[in-house]
């Protein structure tokens, strides 16, 4: 498996630091021994200078380690701060933002919007299985609809029927995005869910009402054109027109052809 470019660059930097340190250490040992041997006048002086050389070596090594570790800590602290602020930004949104592992559906992130929508706190949700917490036994059927699209295109959007902590069902407009790890393998799924339960509940009655109005509009249009000016027809509201059609139909009674169709 190929190593990604970023990881390869990090490894190169590490080996470069190790190589420079080993070269400098060997050079220090060889040069310092030669210098001490040329300066020392007797064995006692040679022992003292070797001791001082060791102390200098330890101090220099500690200084190098200090600056390297300090740099690494600064970089890590900067990344942690960035992650913190990113999480805070995700918590600001009113939508439910959930991150789950691709392999087993284990939840790794749960924002405040998800807490309000589903009823579970982040402490309760993180580590749980999304298909057990959010679905009433139909998780596999719903995931099959999106998994193929996620693998092929990296994203999917659609409606899903889920459940809250108290067992009540809700309908969400789900936006799913596939997240891959540093090696390009499938890692996680970012889910942004918007509650549309109320909208879906109102949708069916509206569709039925629209259907009734559309069925009555052709007959109403004929009656309206024969009794009202064109300008008034164009300015009439749909609700008013539907009421007029219903009143006209009630006044005239059922048509003869409609009655014959019912008898047949």
What are the salient characteristics of this protein?
single chain, 264 residues, alpha+beta, Beta-Lactamase, 3 domains, 5 strands, rod-shaped
Low-confidence stretches: 206-247, 252-264
What is the rounded Rg?
37 Å
CATH superfamily of the largest domain: PAS domain
> Strand percentage, roughly?
15-25%
- Helical segment count: 10
What does it look like?
With about 260 residues, this protein is of the alpha+beta class. The protein folds into 3 domains: about 90 residues, no CATH class; about 100 residues, Beta-Lactamase (2-Layer Sandwich), CATH 3.30.450.20; about 60 residues, no CATH class. The protein contains 10 helices and 5 strands. Strands 2-1-5-4-3 form a 5-stranded antiparallel beta sheet, sandwiched between helices. A hairpin with a 5-residue loop joins β1 and β2.
Summarize the structure.
By secondary structure, this protein is α+β, with helices and mostly antiparallel strands. It has helices at residues 5-39, 43-92, 112-118, 122-125, 130-133, 139-153, 197-227, 230-235, 238-252, 256-263, and strands at 96-101, 107-110, 155-163, 169-180, 186-195.
